[in-house]
Amino acid sequence: MSGLPITMAGMNRVGLLIFVAVVFSSTFAGLCWSAENEPAELGVRVGAGEASESKEFHLYEVQGSIPLPWALEWPDSQGLLGVRANAALGMMRTGGDSGVYVYLGPALRFGRQKWWVEAGTAPTVIAEDRIGGEDLGGPFQITSHLGVGYRFTDRWSTGFRIQHMSNADIYTRNPGLDYGTLEVNYRY
After folding, report:
1. How far is CA 129 from the centre of its chain?
2. Region label for 111, one of left (φ > 0), alpha (ψ between -120 and 50) or beta (otherwise)
3. What is the model's pLDDT at position 26?
4. Whose CA, among 29, 34, 35, 143, lies 20 to 30 Å from 10?
5. Could you report the per-residue pLDDT of 102-113, keeping only the tens digit for each?
6. Contact, 80 vs 116, CB < 8 A?
7. 11 three-class SS
């Protein structure tokens, strides 16, 4: 098995992440109930960041988010902790090159009146794992984020998120990309 770019340690980490996600999601789903008034969102996201070798990357995404049927509501505080499915089609640019990627994954969102906080992770597939001379290791990546947002009307919201994309050491090369992004969403 010496020609494989995947390490055993990386496989163990991915297995552990999958196990934790399954246990967490089944436990959370059993404790929650449906929130019927949360809207879906469609929007755009732009950002900039760098890889581990300080190479600057730019990010452009068309993204969507739909509420899943599990949520905890706090009527007195008008707060809601919900599970959402996030998906994006994006493009990374650096050094005159670009690469396309797609991801789909869960996120937890806590919202109170107009403000919300969200954290999530998503398996990501990139079309090119070498962009602008940067070797990202392989086509499978994991994108994680932590963000805040503000609903300025019933239909429109904006947000900021810190986003990290890496392959969790499943390949021998794993530079990782860290971004700061801004987004605008239409809620429907």
Report:
1. 18
2. beta
3. 46
4. 29
5. 999 999 999 887
6. no
7. helix
H or E stretch covering 16: helix 8-31
Strand bridging mode 140-151 / 115-126: antiparallel
What size, in residues, is the chain? 188
- Any bridge partners for residue 57, and if so which? 49
Asked if residue 124 lies in contact with residue 145, where contact means CB atoms within 8 angstroms, the answer is no
**The dihedral of CA 27, 72, 155, 114: what is its sign?**
negative
Average pLDDT of every residue of the chain? 83
| Measured distance CA(25)–CA(16) in Å, rounded | 14
Return the structure tokens found at 47: 């950002």
| The pair of three-digit structure tokens given for residue 14, joined into one six-digit string | 């991915």
Measured CA distances, 4 to 67, 169, 173, 174 (Å): 39, 13, 12, 15
Residue 67 is encoded by which pair of tokens?
Answer: 């509420």
Please return the burial class of 17, using the count of CB atoms within 10 Å of its CB with bins 0-12, 13-18 and 19+: middle
Residue whose structure tokens are 């929650």: 32
Q: Is 148 helix (H, G, I), strand (E, B) or coil?
A: strand
Report the distance separating Cα 24 and Cα 17, nearest Å.
10
